[in-house]
Design brief:
single chain, 183 residues, alpha+beta, 434 Repressor (Amino-terminal Domain), six-stranded antiparallel sheet, 5 helices, 9 strands, elongated
Length: 183
Amino acid sequence: MDIGSTIRAIRKRKNITIAQICEECGLSQGFMSQVETNKTSPSISTLESIAQALKVPLAYLLLKKEDRMHIVRKNERRITTSGADKLKVEHMSSSKNVKMMLVELPPGSSTGVVPHAHEGEEVHVVMKGRIYAEQGDDAAEFEEGDSFSWHACTPHLVRNIGEDTAIVLISIYTENDSGLDLL
């Protein structure tokens, strides 16, 4: 773990000096310097004092960098195409088990000629347009603002039944990250 670097980064971002942290926590500047350079590991109670002085939750200091907030700006989204209809897929953000994307379906296009299945669970929100969704014996039409969800292990498909491009926000949850390149 790189707790020291995290402490140092927070401290510098908040313009707090080592002396201020030490005064509030009752620590020596030498000890605090060793903590920040990862040369010593503080006890949980000392970490709790440091977290309070930095005004952050103790749990935040214990997070790995990859487990912290991940930001994807609109102009930085990865864009791919999917299926025979070359649906535009904007990859908005993802974590280890969840992937979120915006899918554009031109009029008459669909996620495939036949229903397909894969690992995971999906939640859909129709942001624009009209779509038809089918899974097994269940089928329905949806319009802007409507949402639906399903276990993706049962074959399913989505088709644009409107006259304009439909945009669907899809969130996919899988038990592991290997199933996240599904669309």
